[in-house]
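quick one, 339 residues, struct below
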Amino acid sequence: MPSPTTLIPGLQGLIPAIPALPDAASITQKAEAAVPALSYLPDDFLANLMATGVNITIALTIMVVGWLAAQWLSHRAVSSLGRIGETAASFIASTMRFVVITVAFVVAIIQLGVPAQTLVTIMGAMVVALGLGLKDTLTNVAAGIMLLVNRPFDVGDYVEIDNLAGTVKRINLFQTELNTYKNIRIFMPNQKVWDNAVQNFSHNRQRMVEVTVGLDYSHKPSVCREAIAAAITKHPAVLADPAPFIGLVELADSAVNFTVRVWVKTPDWSQVRYGLLDYIKDECEARGLSIPFPQRVVRMVKEGGSDKAAPKGKPAKTTAKAKRLAKPSTQRSNVQTEG
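---
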């Protein structure tokens, strides 16, 4: 059997169009010419690549550890500083979390090979730029510090700020969170909280409840006061000191109106505000006192200004003017109100 070295020249002689096959040396030279960079790779390229990968891994690890440490420290701060107030503890925890994450980010950047001096210069320029572009955000931080120092409210207080009412749930560096009685969460910037008047319904230990009670004109005011006072004493949440107030404030169209003011502990305000009228109504009905409803007496005026009834069997003539006068009028001269 002929060898390849003798076969190839024979084939080339039979088919002259077949070019000579290249050898291994020529193939290598052509490959180096096509990819010249392969011949110029440094000897420590692989070592540098591995070192860069290690630095990136360490930097990511620092960020993850910093994030977890920030969360852990914030929870520890809330539990440890609870004795100084939940508001201050929440604010300090938020500040600690922000500082720890910032430090972890700086250390991770340095680990990637950025010089510390260069990083400080860059961060200084960023602070100036952020101070100009995010002045409102920095204002919220300053307002949050002022809220922490002055403490117009604490976490858990029921407040009203700029016509928005709710229970304070959290105060952090940038915003205050309220929860309404409909279970709707409101996020309010600290600057808006600081610039507006704050009504704190939970600040004082006692609050006043005021209701209006209307009774019939046929009852003596003294009897009405006795019935209302008896109903007040039956409510368990009403305080005896300060003493309740019962005053006749208006002789209305259909009733004699009394204003009732009682004092309760702040947590009991809603219970008394929406339950005291039940006690008053039951006590008044038990004593035979009626609570009137609005009613009007309309006097029909005939033609000629006389309101005398027509003769029996002879109905009075109805003219256009009489029809006009017979319509119910709201004028005082034609309407009498009786209790």
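The radius of gyration is 45 Å.
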